[in-house]
């Protein structure tokens, strides 16, 4: 097998969120009647139930009508948009972000993640990732032919307001030569928010071992229970060795515009721009203008969005908790729950397919987040509350039908 | 220097089109009065002078209003859009394109190029590119740590309707183990269209030496002088070893939406989708709908666009030809001219900066297309005809001011 063939062999997407139509369901063991009910796709949020920031369409129309000056931008994005966003991130974090040096606009947060990782990692470089964590982190590291150090999160037993990161393993990895550590806060799929202490410890270890940090804080505006959220950039870190990524695709439902940002190290941002120049040139020129609306939503809009999601979380978590053998951690930030199911008598991949064809529900299989999560499913609960609630009833009914005797 | 540092050291963008504001102009030798006149940016087309396909904004509004079902798509793009575009490409080329297997929608044609190259090339793989050809071809190959075989185009002496490719060098490269050959037709920056014979010969060599072809046919709808255009896919090639890329960013002025496609080999398209999943997930969901308008422009719209551009070409080529020592090939397809200038007494990089600060004109420096083109400049003449004409007068005046004695 050639090297390029090897690289692609590892890159599977058939079980990734949104790709479910690729799954083969020819030989499923379907038990009982099909559970009817309105289809719910928990693989991503429902932007009809929770629409984009008010005024989005009007802003786009203006952007299009502005013509050529809006259609093209520097690879790192329109200067006036960078200035606008940098000001808001400066306010959000309390750390001065220079619009010309410390920020880049990307095609979605995924774009930011790809550019950042590719700017930091060459083949055989040592990288630490978490398990479970956003499934593309591993895929990216694999594609870049990195030497991966997976660090475990004991998220089910860690106290609320902490991630459960295994610091002994993390320090051992750093000691062993890891150059980049990538983590998601709030956690995806765990929904855990990192404690101040955990972030301090990450910062101290990174400093001690000269490790670059890549903090994915995509969901940092959607924090529940009036909990305090701590940004990595507020810790005692080397500013040149930290990149934070974020974007309006989730909480703000702007995913259809494909916009993200990365902020932090000038050196890394410079590299990311160079790479952007050969990857996709720029985030779509017209779309970039939508970032003006971000952090400038109507008064009370964000609070209401958080409240609605917190209520959905409460409902779904309560339902799962009533099921014998299910373990679930209530989400502290973001829109994910990651229930661990009781022992079933079919494998998790087939169970997820059964849910799709026999219960009108799409969920993401736990093994996307690490091979050991073969008894977990992930749900993005940014859905219509009633439909989501009914769909979870159907999932629970299916758990009973397939529960191992 | 670490491997990742080495990779980025080669990736320069300061002289790339659209990045001119990064250029340092502190120590320029400015001669005579500044030439006033309306600013023209020849680094890319002017979408105000040549607006996007009629109905674009209305189609976007509908797309946005369609909500969640339009915001998200499979990584390779919305099925209904792939079906729509596949039908049109089938008609355009006469070759059946299966919408589920042979096509992917990407964030711009640059996105298609990146995904295709990254799907075919690992470190140390041998790749043939042309000189001069689209400047990112080399950058991409370098970033992927390929072993690059540059093949020369004798575009100034080749007969009209042929590229002037050096087939001896190409065959030698293939013989030496080149696995991928990438070329742009119509040529960028040459404006040359490949002859049927040339494409036949490329096909035969590719077959003989088992080389995968990547044909960038971005400008294949904008062919001048009623010339016949030949697609690579119509030659006797192994369908599994050919990818063609295209998109509506240029002729159709849709660049602000960032949309491209690649069609061809199922195996390569599958890889591209896997990669898209970690690079940017998908072309923006709302934007994808714009491809419905492509190839379905109002009757006569494309013909008029071609005519207008042909007239601009005629005007600018005529002007440059009057200048002693300038060599220029009239564009056969696309919107580029690549005049070779007489000997100047400043270097080409400084001359381009002089044009910007002292003549209100931006052009792209020839060395972006190969180090040997240090006496060439590239102009994208998709501009307002009068402004472009005046701007070329200013360029010519500057050539005289800096002509070597």
TrEMBL record, chains A, B:
GO terms for biological process: amino acid metabolic process. Coiled coil: none annotated. Keywords: Aminotransferase, Pyridoxal phosphate, Transferase. SUPFAM superfamilies: PLP-dependent transferases. The keyword Transferase applies. Residues 50-395 form the Aminotransferase class I/classII large domain. InterPro entries: Aminotransferase_I/II_large (IPR004839), AspAT/PAT-like (IPR050596), PyrdxlP-dep_Trfase (IPR015424), PyrdxlP-dep_Trfase_major (IPR015421), PyrdxlP-dep_Trfase_small (IPR015422). GO terms for molecular function: pyridoxal phosphate binding; transaminase activity. The keyword Transferase applies. Its cofactor is pyridoxal 5'-phosphate. Belongs to the class-I pyridoxal-phosphate-dependent aminotransferase family. PANTHER family: ASPARTATE AMINOTRANSFERASE. This is Pyridoxal phosphate-dependent aminotransferase. It comes from Peptoniphilus faecalis. The lineage of its organism: Bacteria, Bacillati, Bacillota, Tissierellia, Tissierellales.
């Amino acid at each position: 097998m050639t090297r390029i063939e090897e690289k692609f062999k590892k890159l599977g997407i058939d079980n990734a969120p949104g790709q479910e139509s690729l799954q083969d369901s020819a030989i499923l063991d379907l038990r009982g009647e099909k559970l009817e009910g309105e289809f719910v796709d928990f693989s991503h949020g429902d932007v009809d139930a929770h629409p984009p920031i008010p005024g989005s369409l009007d802003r786009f129309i203006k952007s299009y009508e502005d013509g050529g000056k809006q259609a093209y931008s520097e690879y790192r994005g329109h200067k006036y948009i960078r200035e606008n966003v940098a000001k808001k991130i400066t306010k959000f974090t309390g750390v001065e972000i220079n619009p010309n040096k410390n920020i880049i606009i990307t095609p979605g947060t995924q774009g930011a993640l790809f550019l950042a990782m590719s700017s930091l990692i060459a083949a055989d470089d040592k990288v630490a990732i978490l398990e479970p964590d956003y499934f593309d982190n591993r895929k990216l590291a694999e594609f870049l032919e990195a030497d991966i150090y997976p660090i475990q999160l004991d998220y089910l037993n860690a106290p609320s307001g902490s991630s459960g990161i295994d610091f002994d393993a993390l320090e051992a990895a750093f000691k062993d030569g890891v150059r980049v550590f990538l983590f998601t806060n709030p956690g995806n799929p765990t929904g855990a928010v990192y404690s101040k202490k955990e972030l301090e410890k990450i910062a101290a270890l990174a400093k001690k071992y000269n490790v670059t940090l890549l903090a994915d804080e995509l969901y940092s505006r959607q924090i529940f229970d009036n909990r305090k959220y701590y940004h990595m950039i507020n810790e005692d870190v080397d500013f040149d060795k930290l990149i934070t990524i974020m974007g309006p695709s989730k909480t703000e439902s702007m995913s259809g515009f494909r916009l993200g940002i990365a902020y932090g190290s000038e050196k890394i941002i410079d590299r990311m721009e160079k790479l952007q120049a050969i990857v996709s040139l720029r985030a779509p020129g017209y779309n970039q203008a939508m970032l003006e609306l971000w952090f400038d939503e109507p008064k009370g809009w964000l609070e209401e969005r958080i409240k609605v999601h917190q209520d959905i979380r409460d409902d779904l978590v309560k339902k799962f908790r009533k099921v014998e053998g299910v373990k679930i951690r209530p989400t502290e930030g973001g829109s994910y729950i990651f229930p661990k199911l009781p022992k079933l008598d079919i494998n998790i991949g087939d169970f997820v397919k059964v849910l799709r064809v026999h219960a009108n529900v799409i969920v993401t299989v736990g093994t996307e987040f690490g091979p050991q999560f073969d008894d977990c499913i992930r749900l993005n609960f940014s859905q219509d509350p009633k439909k989501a609630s009914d769909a979870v009833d159907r999932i629970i009914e299916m758990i009973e039908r397939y529960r191992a005797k």
